[in-house]
Specification:
The structure holds 2 protein chains of 2 kinds. Chain A is mainly alpha-helical. Chain A contains 18 helices and no strands. Chain A folds into 2 domains: about 90 residues, no CATH class; about 220 residues, MetI-like fold, CATH 1.10.3720. Chain B has one domain: Orthogonal Bundle (MetI-like fold), CATH 1.10.3720.10. In chain B, helix 1 crosses helix 13, helix 7 runs antiparallel to helix 10 and helix 12 packs antiparallel against helix 13. The longest helix of chain B has about 35 residues. In chain B, about 50% of the residues are buried. The chains are: A mainly alpha, B mainly alpha.
Chain lengths: ~325, ~270
């Protein structure tokens, strides 16, 4: 399993670009000398055991159990399945109504992220350029807001009062206006030379067009890192849907899986299949966006990640 | 509007009795929730505070140490190490119900592999997540399992920022591995340690989603976050009382987080 993954990842790597620290020179040497996977395995056995054995094995174990018929599971709960079956997956897919929930999750994760990035950039620009006084006050407020009490309860009351409770649009609006990325963007825009504003103004470029055509392309790496973070955080949020969305048709996949776990207690193969179905898209996105995520944590996005983390921890625990 | 206002409004609602059902009156009752917390329910609140502190301290200390260890092992360049790092980072992006469901099966006393292993290898029977003695520690372990990769990446970024000359100077002076770590790596990692400790502790102090999925706050795992959530959105739906818990949590976070931040910054300067 890990074997194939390594190969796949190694092949996929150049297309995905390499993280800042991956020394491609050495890596090509390893691949180039044509060393077999087996040799690499024996050399790296301890590393593989430590990384895959601890951090990936639980997921693999679940994936295996998901192929076991329930009757066999009752007799032999921990071993490998003797008759592999995919019925658990089709059953889970139908019972959990994951198809609709995955679509909902996509909406809840992508729209607020896109809107908050766009709004964040438009708001961050004047502040970064100092057109707005009391920047320090705002900054202080932001740092302090990380400590503020969990606003879940008033948010719930507010949502009911504004008619945002139990509605898809309401949920999107609520998540779009949290402004997590805002201060991260302020710092980034400061690094873009001011001369460019002036040159653009001279050429008669308007404010909106300037931001869309000059600032946003300039901020691409930051926005990508932040976008991936925001997307993953929004996708994974379980508490807010639990509080805000009563209607089953509106549930994202996290909320759906939470109920699915409760409804199918002890039918572990079915639960495993459900978990694998829900985890699969996340893992796929991770394999593709791994670079942005890992690089994002390592690089300048620590601040952005912090903002997201703070926001998430306040809504999500 | 949806970030700052609710936080501040929590203070207001903590002085009220409100069920959240539209149309029912909002009773402003002054300090009633706080009075309740300091009288008959004192043991509940104090217990939740103690659980939260235990949880946060345990997670922060162990996760930071493990992250640093993993960073030292997996900091090397090269494709295979990029792959190992990705694997270690992976649990951090799985959502709480995925991880919760996963470990409910793994730690199931009857049909989970961990239970079977302990039964066969050591002859130990345990209810694991259903055991009041170890449940909290298991959830701490799972939280650490999820967060380790994140911390590792922060530490690796810190390690990469240490100039090579420092190590060369140390080896010229004949410093061994341990002394190099003690006198070069550790002090120069101070900024990364600050970020890692601070983020971990803040997240751990507020943690409740995972506890909710795994034990619903039973078996001695009721942290302040869980207590807040269950009193506000559980069967009793006492939003006012829940807000009061959120305020208690706020002061605890402010106390611990603020203190930590000051101490860590001071440490960065003196080192």
């Amino acid at each position: 399993m890990s074997n194939q993954l390594t190969k796949g990842l190694d092949r996929g790597q150049p297309g995905m670009g390499t993280p800042p620290w991956s020394d491609s020179g050495r890596a090509t040497k390893v691949v180039g000398t044509g060393r077999s996977i087996l040799q690499v395995l024996s050399r790296h056995g301890a590393y593989i055991l430590l990384s895959a054995g601890i951090f990936a094995l639980p997921l693999v174990y679940l994936a295996v159990q998901a192929f076991k018929p329930y009757t066999e599971f009752l007799r032999n709960p921990t071993g490998l399945p003797s008759g592999w079956t995919a019925t658990n997956f089709s059953d889970a897919w139908q019972q959990g109504e994951f198809a609709r929930q995955l679509v909902n999750s996509l909406v809840y994760a992508s729209m607020p992220t896109a809107i908050s990035i766009l709004l964040g950039v438009f708001l961050a620009f004047p502040i970064a350029r100092g057109y707005f006084k009391q920047t320090n006050l705002l900054y202080g407020l932001f740092v302090f807001s990380g400590f503020l009490p969990v606003g879940l309860i008033p948010l719930f009351i507010e949502a009911q009062a504004l008619g945002l409770y139990n509605s898809m649009m309401g949920y999107v609006v609520m998540n779009s206006l949290v402004g997590a990325g805002f201060f991260f963007f302020v710092g980034y825009i400061r690094t873009i030379p001011r001369e460019r504003d002036e040159a653009a103004a001279m050429d008669g470029c308007g404010y909106v067009r300037f931001i869309l055509t000059i600032i946003i392309p300039e901020m691409k790496p930051a926005l990508a890192a932040f976008g991936v973070f925001g997307f993953v955080a929004a996708w994974n949020n379980m508490i807010l849907p639990l509080v805000m969305l009563a209607d089953e048709d509106l549930w994202p996949v996290t909320r759906g899986l939470y109920s699915f776990l409760g409804e199918n207690v002890q039918n572990w193969p079915l639960i495993s299949a459900g978990i694998i179905i829900v985890a699969a898209p996340v893992v796929c996105v991770f394999v593709l966006a791994q670079r942005y995520l890992v690089e994002g944590v390592a690089g300048g996005a620590v601040a952005g990640g912090h903002a997201v983390a703070a926001q998430v921890s306040r809504n999500d625990g | 509007m949806f970030g700052l206002y609710p936080s501040v409004a929590t203070f207001f609602y903590s002085f009220t009795q409100y069920s959240g059902v539209p149309g029912t009156p909002l009773n402003v009752c002054g300090l009633c929730n706080y009075a309740a917390a300091t009288s008959s329910l004192l043991s509940n609140v104090a217990g939740a505070i103690w659980t939260t502190v235990k949880f946060a301290v345990g997670v922060t200390v162990v996760q930071t140490a493990l992250s640093l260890g993993l960073a030292l092992i997996f900091q090397r360049r090269g494709r295979s190490f990029t792959f190992y790092r990705a694997i270690i980072f992976l649990p951090g992006i799985l959502s709480v119900p995925i991880v919760g469901g996963m470990f409910s099966l793994l730690l199931d006393p009857v049909s989970g592999p961990v239970g079977e292993l302990f039964r066969n290898a050591f002859g130990i029977e345990s209810a694991f997540l259903g055991s009041g003695r170890i449940s909290l520690f298991l959830i701490m372990g799972i939280t650490i399992w999820m967060g380790c990769g994140y911390g590792m990446i922060i530490f690796i970024a810190g390690l990469r920022a240490i100039p090579r000359e420092s190590y060369e100077a140390a080896s010229v002076d004949g410093a061994g591995r341990f002394r190099t770590f003690r006198h070069i790596t550790w002090p120069l990692l101070a900024p990364a340690t600050t970020v890692c400790v601070f983020l971990t502790s803040m997240a751990a102090l507020g943690e409740f989603a995972l506890v909710l999925v795994l034990t619903e706050g039973n078996f001695g795992t009721k942290t302040l976050g869980v207590y807040m959530f269950t009193s506000a959105f559980g069967t009793s739906s006492q939003l006012g009382y829940g807000s009061m818990i959120a305020i208690v949590q706020f002061f605890l976070t402010l106390l611990i987080g603020g203190g930590l931040l000051l101490a860590l910054r001071r440490r960065e300067v003196t080192l």
